[in-house]
Amino acid sequence: MHCKQSATNKARFKSVIATSDPIKALEEFIETEQSVDFSSEWKEDHYSVKLSRKIERSDRTVSGSFALFRHGESDVWTALTGHGPDFFKRGIKWILRKGQPELSNFYVSSEDLESVLKDTEKRLSSRIFVNKAVVYSHKEEGNISWETRPYRFVFDQSKSSDRYVDKLTFEVRRNRELLFDSFVSRSGVVKFTGGDVNLFFNNLLRAYANTATEKVELFSEKARSRQTGEIKELEIQFNSNPLQDPDNNRDLIDALANLSKSSLTIYHNNPYAHISVLDLVDGSNCDVFVTSSDTISIIPGFRGSMNSLIRISDQIAREFQEGKVVEKYEQKFDSSDFVHADL
Asked: How far is CA 320 from CA 32, 289, 304, 310, 335, in A?
C-alpha cells in the first residue's frame, strides 16, 4: 500500500491469517447476517471495504471503512482504518472474527514481541523506549506500568517474574529525533500514533507480519492424514519446569477449560495428563499430553485446523505458561496410544 508521508491521525491495524481470499470468507458470513451492510472493491493493491453493523442489544449502528491488504505473497492480511476504537472493535475485529476458521487470528509470544522490537531498533539504528506496558501473570490481573524505559528492561523484568507481555505503547528514537510512536499487542493489533508512517510500515509492521508468517509455517497442514495416519506433532517447550508436580496438571486442565467454544475430555490426570480438546468453532480436535516436567505435546486429529491449533497454544500460553512451540519431526505413535482400556 502507498502511505501518506504527512499522516497525522492515529491508524489502527488488525492482522489475520488467510490461506485464501479473505473477502470471500467474509461475504459467506454476510449472506446469513441481516444486521450487516458490507461492500468491497479491489483497488490496485488492497480491498477498500465499507461496513455497517446494527448492534441489536444496544439499538445502535457502527459504520466505517477500512483497507484490507496482503503482505507480499504471504497468507498474512491486515485491516487498516483511521476510524476510532468503537468501529475498530465492534466493526473490524468483530467481522474478522466471524470469518473463522477461514480467517485465523494469530497471537505472538513475549519472545516474538521482543524480536519485533529488536529487529525494528536494529534496522533503524534507533532506540525504543516503552511508555506503557501491560504485563500479565498467568493467574492474576494484569499490571500496568507507565514508566518510560528501554524495551529490553520490560521483557527482562517480565521473564524474571514469570509474567508475559500483553501490549506495549512505545516510541522509536534516533538520538533526539522521534521516528514514530506506536502500539503493539500479542493479539494481532498494532497502532500508528505519530511520526513517519513509512518508517512504521516498512519496519515495525513488516517485522510483525513476518512473525505471523512464521505462525503459518508452524501451524498449517498439521491434521492427521486420513490416508496414511501420519501424525504431525507439536511440542510446547518451557524454560522452567511448570509440570514437575501432578497438581500442575490441574492448572493446565483449568487453562484449557477456559478456551471459548470448546469441549474437553480428560483421560488421565495423575501422574500425567492426557486431555482431548474439541474445538466447536470448526470441529477440530487434538490430544494434549504432558510428556515431561517441561514439555507438552499436542497431537492434532484428523480435523486439526490451523485456527484451532493457534487458539489452543495461545490459551496455554496465557493461562498456564508461555513456552516455545515447535514441530516434532520423529513420530512414534500407534493406535494404542489413543485407545484406553478403561473406556
From this structure: 37, 14, 22, 15, 29
Give the C-alpha separation, 267 to 306, whole Å. 24
User: Does 2.60.40 match the CATH number of domain 233-337?
Assistant: no
| Cell triple for 78 | 491486515
Q: pLDDT digits over 53-102, tens only? A: 998 887 899 999 999 999 999 999 999 999 999 999 999 999 999 999 99
Judge whether 249 and 270 are in contact, CB under 8 Å. Answer: yes
* CATH 3.30.160 domain range(s) in the chain: 233-337
pTM: predicted TM-score of the whole model, two decimal places: 0.89
Structure-block grid coordinates of residue 196 = 513517519
| CATH architecture entry for 11-104 | 2-Layer Sandwich (3.30)
Q: How far apart are CA 66 and CA 240, in angstroms?
A: 43
Could you tell me the CA-to-CA distances from 173 to 116, 124, 134, 170, 180 in Å, in that order? 16, 9, 21, 10, 7
Element (H, E) at 37: strand 36-43
Instruction: Calculate the dihedral angle through the C-alpha atoms of 17, 19, 25, 26, rounding to the nearest 10 degrees.
Output: 30
Separate counts of helices (H) and strands (E) for the chain: 9, 18
Q: Is 286 exposed, middle or buried (0-12, 13-18, 19+ CB in 10 A)?
A: buried
Q: Boundaries of CATH 3.30.530 in the chain?
A: 11-104
